[in-house]
Amino acid sequence: MMKGKVLLISDNEGEGTALADLLSDGGFSAITAESANLGGEMLESDIDFDVAMVDIGLQNDEIHTLLDKIGRCGSTVQVVMISDDNSTGAPKEAIEYGAFEYLQWPQDRERALMVAGMAVKMARLARENNRLKGRLMEKVTLTSIVAEGREMMETRDKARTLALLDTSVVIIGESGSGKRTLAEAIHNESPMAAQPFVFANILPGEDELGVERRLFGDENDLSAPGMMEKAQGGTLYICDISLLSARLQSALQSVIQRKEFSRVGGDRPEKADFRLVAGSGSDLAKEMNAGRFREDLYYHLNLAELHVPPLRRRKEDISALARVFLKKSCDRHGRKGCDITPDAMNALTKYRWPGNIRELEDTVDCMLSGQISGKIRFDDLPDRIYKDVRRPSKISRQEAHVQPFAAEKSVFERQYLVRALEECEGNITVMARITDLSRPALYEKLRKYGLK
Fold it and tell me: Are 4 and 26 spatial neighbours (Cβ–Cβ below 8 Å)?
């Protein structure tokens, strides 16, 4: 198993290659860059680097630019300064640069592996600390879910009761309506809130064996535990459960009944100590009556069912939701004084939102990212919304929902990338493999939509 990913930045090709070979032999993934400028670009385009080993002999302005770039992006990359200078000035200079450690090369051959290992551990601790802080800051509760209208208020109140019970729950709602948010809020207000909340997204046409390995794990790859194993003691949220094949529906029902599961390729039962919450974009009763969903699994899940209304039936909530998303986007883009003018807000409230809450969030973020002032005005609205609220006739409103292909493709791409990032937990290598995109193409799309 790879110990960590190290980037060596040095204009001395011979020494850089020798250090890279030593680290590779020691179990690290080592990549070289012959300039600070190239090294900075590589660090920006690949979030998997743990350590940057920087030649202290590079130009001062190059090093400062590189370190500033690392600091600005909130990177957890640990910097190790390397030099062949055995004077006392080099370590002092490294400290002044704010380096994690100083390495004298090629004299410190044995120490190089130890320093690299320590730096990798520090990078991963910093990454985990950031993740936990982010989770604490973004922790969603039922109280934080916007619900001004009667229908959503009833759903939220019922969810609050179910959160305290040890029972499976099914959440029915259109794509983008907030099913996952509601599921996570239920988990966060349950007795198992301190335990993991694990999200498993089932996609149309996804390979059955791939889904099974993701859910149950693989006996031949214990380094990548399945979702059920990750969810031990906590909550497993499966969305969209209606897309599970008949065989996997049967396997899931067996897990629920026996409270145990086995990995793919294994016969040793593992305890299934988690709460199951299932999301579905279609009515499971209709799916069952059509023979596409197992009856016994349906009746187990139907003990507790929640319905999340689409945003077009939550007109009272649109203004409050838009302001929540505005603040989040404002913080992400480093803006101050963000606002939505009354006429723009009125238009957002009148629009039908076929993409539901997800479309509203993406729309607010895209509008804000293009504004210098941070104030969203009516003229900033996308054409699809402008046409919809400006044309009163029924035919015109229907036409407004059929947008130019390029516009709809952009909305789909961003939503797809957001879901892929969540599913792959930010791992670009896994994401590239699953999406069948090259890493450069994937990085470019992430930058395009402000997701990097």
Answer: no
What integer pLDDT is reported at residue 229 of this predicted model? 92
- Within this chain, do residues 206 and 325 fall inside the same structural domain, yes or no? no
Task: Give Cα separations from 379 to 176, 323, 333, 371 (angstroms).
Answer: 25, 18, 21, 11
pLDDT at 408: 67
With cut-offs at 50, 70 and 90, classify the pLDDT of residue 95. low
**Residue 354: closest CA among 148, 175, 171:** 175
**Is residue 24 scored above 50 in pLDDT?**
yes
Number of domains in the chain: 3
> What would the two tokens of residue 57 be?
């002999």
Handedness of CA 374, 379, 380, 381 (dihedral sign): positive
The yes-or-no verdict on residue 397 having pLDDT over 80 is: no
* Residue 143 domain-assigned (yes or no): no
Give the domain range for residue 361: 312-448
Q: Are 299 and 332 found together in one domain?
A: no
Strands (E), 4-139: 5-9, 29-33, 51-55, 78-83, 101-104
Closest to 201 measured CA to CA, from 420, 355, 442, 360: 420
Q: In angstroms, rounded to a whole number, what is the distance separating the alpha carbons of residues 367 and 70?
A: 28
Report the alpha-carbon distance of residue 202 to residue 236 in Å, rounded.
13
Q: What is the pLDDT of residues 188-244, one digit of tens each?
A: 999 999 999 999 988 888 889 989 999 999 988 877 789 999 999 999 999 899 999
Residues 167 and 77 in one domain: no
Same domain, 319 and 298: no
Could you tell me the pLDDT band of residue 434, with boundaries at 50, 70 and 90?
Answer: confident
Q: Are 411 and 330 in contact (CB under 8 A)?
A: no
**Inside any domain, residue 37:** yes
Same domain, 72 and 170: no
In a domain? residue 35 = yes
DSSP characters over 305-329: EEE---GGG-HHHHHHHHHHHHHHH
Q: Are residues 167 and 290 in the same domain?
A: yes
β-strands 5-9, 29-33 pairing: parallel
CA 340 – CA 373 distance, rounded (Å): 11
- Separation CA 363–CA 358 (nearest Å): 9
pLDDT tens digits, 42-92: 877 666 788 888 887 787 778 877 777 676 545 688 888 888 766 555 566
- The structure tokens listed for 415 are 């939503």
Residue recorded with tokens 């350590």: 51
* Residues in contact with 93: Cβ distance below 8 Å, sequence separation at least 6, in sequence order: 56, 81
Omega before residue 269 within 30° of 0, cis: no
Predicted TM-score of the model (pTM): 0.58
